[in-house]
Structure formats: structure tokens, C-alpha cells
Design goal:
This protein is an alpha+beta fold and about 170 residues long. The protein contains 6 helices and 3 strands; from the N terminus they run H-H-H-H-H-H-E-E-E. Helices cover about 40% and strands about 10% of the residues. A 3-stranded antiparallel beta sheet has the order 1-2-3, with no helix packed on it. The longest helix is centred in the last third of the chain and has 23 residues. The chain is extended, with a radius of gyration of 23 Å.
């Protein structure tokens, strides 16, 4: 049985998050990433979530279980309901369905995702710069909004006419 921490908390900063509690656990309780307690409880990348289901391959699929789990994901991550209609989500599910077995499904870790998104961004930026090298004139439109998480966004869209006199934008 774990005992509650009796140490008085200091000032919590608005932007502090898991780093604050990780520092507290490391300094006050000697619990860190490499401590035996942490190693035994943490499972690593998200594909480890499939380990139990791989061991219980006789577990039956039901559409109700899939619906319920999808609802949990949407609620937990504060995602919009129309995520279920997102073409990328449907493609993701189709790719997963095409796997030869559940063992073939290995989801990347959050670090790998961050690295891949960064690389994808850099490649997209390079292609856009190449595309604009031969565009003589560009018009811009702007759109600003605030997300449900109170984050401000500004979208900038570039419009131009290509050599075939067709309107393009990005």
C-alpha cells in the first residue's frame, strides 16, 4: 500500500506539467526513470498495449467493444466526434486491418512520431520552396481562430495561377 506524500508543495506554475511531478518523485522519493519500481510498471511504447491481446488471441472482437474503446480515446484526448469520419483515421484502420497478424502491428513511440512529423514538415517545406521558385505572383488569405484548448492559431493560405491558368493554393 502506498502512503500519501507529506511534503508541502511549492508554487505550481501554470505551464508546469509532468516534469514537475517527475522532479518531485526523483528528488523527494528517489523514484526515477531507471528505478526498479518504475521499470516494472512502465511498459514503454504504445505497441506494448497489444501484448496482452496477443497472449489472448482467442479474445473475441465485438463492434460494441471497438465503439466503446473509440469513444474512450475521443473523450480522453478531447478529440472531436467527427474524428471517426476523418479520411486519415479510416486509412489508419484499413492499414491495421491489412496486417498479416496482430504481432505485425507495432505502433511507434511518441519520440518516433515527433521525429517523423518533424522530418515530414521539413520535406514539405522544401517542396513548397521549390514550387514557389517559379511563381511570379502570390496572393495570401489569413484566418485566425482559438482552439477548444485556448490555443490561438493563424492559418496563412497562398493562392496563385499556374502556367495552365488554373488556380492553386496551399
Amino acid at each position: 500500500m502506498h502512503q500519501p506524500c507529506s511534503q508541502k508543495a511549492g508554487y505550481a506554475y501554470l505551464n508546469s506539467s509532468t516534469t514537475t511531478i517527475m522532479n518531485h518523485l526523483r528528488k523527494a522519493h528517489n523514484i526515477g526513470e531507471n528505478s526498479p519500481m518504475n521499470r516494472s510498471r512502465l511498459s514503454g511504447p504504445i505497441d506494448s498495449a497489444f501484448e496482452n491481446s496477443r497472449k489472448r488471441s482467442a479474445e473475441q472482437f465485438t463492434s460494441q467493444a471497438l465503439d466503446r474503446q473509440f469513444c474512450k480515446v475521443l473523450i480522453r484526448n478531447q478529440m472531436p466526434y467527427n474524428t471517426v469520419e476523418c479520411p486519415e483515421m479510416l486509412k489508419l484502420l484499413k492499414v491495421a486491418q491489412s496486417a498479416p497478424s496482430q504481432d505485425a502491428i507495432k505502433l511507434p513511440s511518441n519520440d518516433t512520431i515527433a521525429r517523423r512529423v518533424s522530418n515530414w514538415y521539413k520535406e514539405s517545406e522544401r517542396l513548397i520552396v521549390e514550387d514557389f521558385a517559379n511563381v511570379p505572383m502570390v496572393a495570401f488569405t489569413l484566418d485566425g481562430w482559438t482552439s477548444p484548448f485556448q490555443m490561438s492559431f493563424l492559418a496563412i493560405t497562398a493562392h496563385w495561377i499556374n502556367d495552365e491558368w488554373e488556380q492553386e493554393d496551399i
